[in-house]
Design a protein that fits this description.
Keywords: Methyltransferase, Transferase. By secondary structure, the protein is of the alpha/beta class. 34% of the residues lie in helices and 24% in strands. It binds N,N,N-trimethyl-histidine.
Amino acid sequence: IKPVFDNATPVTQAPEPQGFLDDVLQGFAQAQKTLPAKYFYDDAGSDLFEAITRLPEYYPTRTELAILDAQGPAIAAALPQGAALVEFGSGSTVKVRRLLRHLPDLAAYLPVDVSESFLHAQAAGLRADFPVLRVEPVAADFTRPFSLPADLGDAPRAGFFPGSTIGNFEPAEAARLLRQFGAVLGAGAVLVVGVDLVKDHAVLEAAYDDAAGVTAAFNRNVLTRINRELGGTFDLDAFAHRAVFNDQASRIEMHLVARAAQDVAVAGRPVAFAAGESIHTENSYKYTVESFRALAASAGWAPVQVWTDPQALFSVHALRL
Ligand code: AVJ
């Protein structure tokens, strides 16, 4: 169990089931080599993702922010009065700020994040900007069960899960996650979740293969991490970035494709690549309003309302348990 800042609610969570090396070796032992997308996000990777969100081709972040700005009052009105609002994977809190200004009667805001130092800094910033808001940071991995602080009283519960992070999970895992959010929040809760929409394949593929090569650098960063943290010998230039929309599965897939046959070592263990062989590094599932509602329903959540931008690029759903 990691130490927790004294202003973050300590939660009891088992340690990470597997470490980076185990995940990498296991992923490379598959017929289709694969790496978990969560390893993109070290400091350099988080900076690269920030840069992605500002790319002209990467529409999701700015479109979701535009929906939150345009529909903030309506989204706020869909939440129960005096709610305790839990944000799953709160990060920089940029998005929730767009809602908080419309929620003067919130009982508490509970950002949940694994990065304790970041959580600490973000909570301090929020307290400065929203002096009457009770901010109760929770240091936890939202993908695994955790409990809320006991002293929230009978405030109704609301949840916030923006960014289409849900799209990074296999549909069955996404349903499991939504069900777990329900278990954390309880019956009667309202969940607001941002979901990227299916659209023209060229638009989708450009968003994940930008002209400036930022997404390519983000993708290759996972190899940089393997080299630095696991004694890997990857030649970054020997792997091409590829992003394709898989129509059947309704997802963008990111791959790193070996330009030629090569042998690489990871922690002293050999890993062989054939020419053209890929490492599947990320899935980003895209939903229609209907297909996401079906997924949510399978996890016990009923549709309340949905908001989209004028071009129907992105959706923000309110769901009730
Ligand atoms: C952070 C998972 C929402 O899938 O669009 C962006 C990650 N990967 N470009 C996404 C990502 C490549 C992003 N999410």
